[in-house]
Amino acid sequence: MPKASVRMAYAYDRLRAYPPEVAGRIATAIGNALGVRGEEAVLLELGVGTGRIALPLIARGYRYLALDKDPGMLEVFRQKAAGVMRKVRLIEADARAIPLPDESVHGVIVVHLWHLLPDWPKALAEALRVLKPGGVLLEGWDEMEAEEERLIQERWRFLVEAEGVGVVRGLHRRRLGEVEEALKRLGLRPKTKQVVQWREERTLRQALEALEERLYSFTQLVPEEVHERIMPGLWTWAQGEFGDLDRFFTLERSFTLRATRMA
Ligand code: SAM
């Protein structure tokens, strides 16, 4: 297991973690949307990452198939889930070729994955294939807003573009729209609901470190040499703009769930 990939997975985990009460609200919303009665529900999560959605569900007793193609993410997931692993199976695989039989799970959970897959229709077809009749596709996503974060990311983008490299933003939201259209074309009826809103504190340094560590997908297509050239300039700019980088700012966050039941 490459140490760098586990280190990245822990950094991702720290950046995206939910406060316990938020994680609980998300698990409750998923459980309610699933609505399975009388038999033991089996959940499959595609791109499970380090398990921030999975772990509260596992703790509530769901049988969980945790699929990811990145062994570093699965390793951190495995360490975090130690002690509650009884009903969990880790699957190192590609979401576009799920190694499970047709109609074998009650719920497929997908959070922040579609935008990473240019050929997402393959993964969507696979998700629908493995769902039982009456099963539910559960797509979730976070939104976050803070003026400080926006200013830092704008400056980052300016510096990258000054190096002649284009930056694609807004892909995540666009992709959610494309998936919704695809589901409707199949005659399905996705239902979207904001589950929870909360506030968090983060330091300016943490916001810069997230860019430095390339934890956001929009940073990952920038060539390494460009990334290394621009980052010192970003830190210097931030120091001049904000002064104390250990100052906290408030981040408005929310989680939305879209549930689509199979016929
Ligand atoms: N769902 C988790 C969450 O919300 O915290 C993780 C989201 S993270 C942005 C995307 C995850 O999808 C990563 O763990 C990555 O390794 C995984 N992933 C990316 N492409 C994948 C693929 N083709 N098949 C399976 N997993 C994939």
From TrEMBL:
SUPFAM superfamilies documented for this protein: S-adenosyl-L-methionine-dependent methyltransferases (SSF53335)
Cited CDD domains: AdoMet_MTases (cd02440)
GO biological process, one term: methylation
Domain Methyltransferase type: 44-138
Record has Nuclease as a keyword: no
Name of the molecule in the record: Class I SAM-dependent methyltransferase
Alphabetized InterPro entries for the sequence: Methyltransf_11 (IPR013216), Methyltransf_Superfamily (IPR050508), SAM-dependent_MTases_sf (IPR029063)
Keyword line: Methyltransferase, Transferase
Pfam families referenced in this protein's UniProt entry, alphabetically: Methyltransf_11
MF (Gene Ontology): methyltransferase activity
Keyword hit for Transferase: yes
Top-level taxon of origin: Bacteria
Source organism of the structure: Thermus brevis
